[in-house]
Amino acid sequence: MAKLVFLGRLADVAGAPEREVEPGPLAEVLSLLPGELAVALLDERVRMALNGELVSEPEAVMLEAGDELAFLPPVSGG
Amino acid sequence: MIDVRLLTSVFNPGQFVGPFTHAHPGLGGVCTFVGEVRGEGGVEALELSHYEPLTLPGMQALAQRAAARFGLMGIMILHRTGVMLPGEPIVCVSAAAAHRRAAFDAVDFAMDHLKSDSWFWKREKKGGAWSWIEPRAGDYNDLARWD
Prior knowledge:
The structure holds two protein chains of two kinds.
Chain A: E1 2-6, H1 9-14, E2 18-21, E3 24-25, H2 26-31, H3 35-41, E4 47-50, E5 53-54, E6 62-63, E7 68-72
Parallel strand pairs in A: 1-7
Antiparallel strand pairs in A: 1-2, 3-6, 4-5, 4-7
Chain B: E1 2-7, H1 13-22, E2 29-36, E3 43-50, H2 52-70, E4 74-80, E5 82-84, E6 89-97, H3 100-116, E7 120-126, E8 129-132, H4 137-144
Parallel strand pairs in B: 1-4
Antiparallel strand pairs in B: 2-6, 3-5, 3-7, 4-6, 7-8
Helix pairs in contact in B: 2-3, 3-4
């Protein structure tokens, strides 16, 4: 299995801070999620990090077993 | 000296600023900013979440950038995570330099980047209900001053 991690408001949309999914190409992984969540994750302002490294080409992401893919909405700290 | 920490419980900035200052004998000035949870508008609590693999490494990189850009002797960045109450400190940035301008500017630079270019997500509780805080346009304008 691979793990999706949802930060900020995305955790509310997902109903949990993380979710186990079957490995595979990102498009396939997203297609198996609830529609509302998939739409929120595909927002152009949401960045992704695969195993702690920011993703520059989301369309090329292929999840392997044990991978962790984090979805990062716009930040607000300080 | 670069000192960057994520803190999970309430802290007293003075306890950190003292030792940080003493670690830089011969400095010309130290500038410290402390941000606290505002009590206005019926805010009952604030919660900051972060993402372990990115947040602290990002803060360390920010500290390195600030130190190099302003020629600092040292910089300290402390940032809370978890639930905070009004009046509690969220963030403390302290810069030590040979001259005051570098210390002022470094703290300003670090705060603008912590507000809208660091891996934190903030939500506030009002009337018993939590809501996420989106970054303000002004935060991005503040950040753009340093490009």
